[in-house]
Amino acid sequence: MRYVSLGSGSKGNATLLEHQGRSLLIDCGFSRKTLLQRLELARADAGQLEAVLVTHEHGDHAKGALALCEALDIPLYCSQGTAIKMDWTEHARWRSLTGGDLTRVAGMSVAAVTVPHDAREPLQFVVEAAGLRVGVLSDLGSLTPHVIAAYQGCHGLQLEANHDPEMLRKGPYPPGLQARVAGPYGHLSNAQCAELIRRIDWPGVQYLTAGHISEKNNHPDLVGQALALAFGSTSRPVHLLAQDQVADWCEF
Ligand SMILES: [Zn+2]
Ligand SMILES: [Zn+2]
């Protein structure tokens, strides 16, 4: 099993997971054309892609998903709430997911996890194959016992370190948007991300990556410091994801 971020941030997110020559994509916040280019950059075969899972309706996650599914003739999975917001409920490609569902997609087991975020019915995903467990988690405003329980025992975790509260306060966002980002249905701060890492028990962890890093309200050095402290006991590096870069594959 292996996985790679094809880009992460408020201008677009997509993560590819692959097992035995079959793959699924979590989110397609890029145009179909950009996404296909990024698959090439990752040396991934678009022909192996069997489904797209969309976490929620915000454009940085959903933008190119339906166009990609139509071009590749594959299904699109998301919650009913997301489908309603995207006007996908009558579309033949749509498959409904509900928080708590365990679904088989592209030979992998996908758990849908309900998260607090200001979307209609947002989900995040934990994917398992061959005894390996990968959690992909972004766009949540606060840590809930449900989320913390769902992501225990991951061997790879890609999570959100969106903002530094002081940079957000002094930054260019108007007060209303600042309140939204920092609020319980917005995005995780570096400190909240570090707190999540501390509360996850993962003896088999191999990869930790941080994404959805704000370009205006955060700095990679601050993310690195906050997470390395929390993750320090494992003596493994924390990898930071970028908006315009295909990351390195995390391979087991
Ligand atoms: Zn987002
Ligand atoms: Zn969002």
TrEMBL record:
Residues 11-177 form the Metallo-beta-lactamase domain. InterPro entries: Metallo-B-lactamas (IPR001279), RibonucZ/Hydroxyglut_hydro (IPR036866), WalJ/YycJ-like (IPR052533). Pfam families: Lactamase_B_2. This is MBL fold metallo-hydrolase.
